[in-house]
UniProtKB/TrEMBL annotation:
Residues 19-108 form the HPt domain. It holds the Pfam family Hpt. Coiled coil: none annotated. The keyword Disulfide bond does not apply. This is Hpt domain-containing protein. It comes from Duganella zoogloeoides. It comes from the Bacteria.
Amino acid sequence: MNASTDPDFRARLAALNAKFAATVPGTMDKIAQALAACRASASAGCAAPSAAALHQLHELLHGVAGSAGTFGFATLGQEARRIEQQVRTVMKEGAGWELIPVQVDRLLAWAARDASATEFN
């Protein structure tokens, strides 16, 4: 029997998707906290946030980017990946931070409305 037609497989996959969906609000809260830490360290007179704050934000976005698509949240994963790559650039080059907070805020607001939506707007 093919896994995609196996009712037990589909039930297990649906349960995993539901479990992931339940974690999204908490994960978005962690991303918001990491963004706040970045803003706080950036406003302390630096052009970019501290390396530790950026690393935390990057890790959280990376986690969402890597897992969201697997559990039916493809657009959330794609947007997290896009922002994660920009954060990585800031970590390497020390420039470009000013664009990231607005993008993370947009991601958080969108995810609060419907993190499983197929269009990011």
